[in-house]
Every structure is written in C-alpha cells, then in structure tokens.
Write a structure and sequence with these properties.
Blueprint lengths: L17 H39 L4 H12 L1
Helix pairs in contact: 1-2
C-alpha cells in the first residue's frame, strides 16, 4: 500500500482549510479580548476612584451607592 499525494488525499485528507479558519478565528478572538479588556479597565478605574472618595469621606453613602449603580449599568 502506497501513499497518494494528490488533491483528494493531501495532508489531513482534504481538511487543510481548517488551519486558516483557526488562524483568523484566533486573530478575531484576540482583538475582541483586547477591546473588552481595555473598556473593563476603564470601568474598574472609575469604580476604584469612587471607592477612594467614599473611603476618604468626601461623599455620603447614598451618593456612593447611586454612583456605583450608575457605573454598573
């Protein structure tokens, strides 16, 4: 029995097209992940600033809870 290296029986038996799909899928996933991480970081910084203001006593508890609720939307 020999091996045939033609169009129909190439590497992975004709499933070579999966590799470009995986490649572009990983690229798209990476870009989406970076964009989400960037915006999540901004939200976390805003919440951290709000917690600092409350801890320092510059804002009341009601004001803190209202602002926190606005940030979580």
């Amino acid at each position: 029995m020999g091996y045939c290296y033609g169009w129909g029986s190439s590497f992975l038996g004709g499933y070579w097209w999966i590799f470009p799909l995986i490649f572009w899928g990983l690229i798209i996933f990476g870009v989406v992940y970076l964009i989400r991480a960037f915006f999540r970081r901004d939200e976390n910084e805003a919440l951290a600033m709000l917690k600092r203001e409350y801890a320092m006593g510059r804002i009341s508890r009601e004001d803190y809870l209202n602002r926190k609720k606005d940030l979580e939307r």
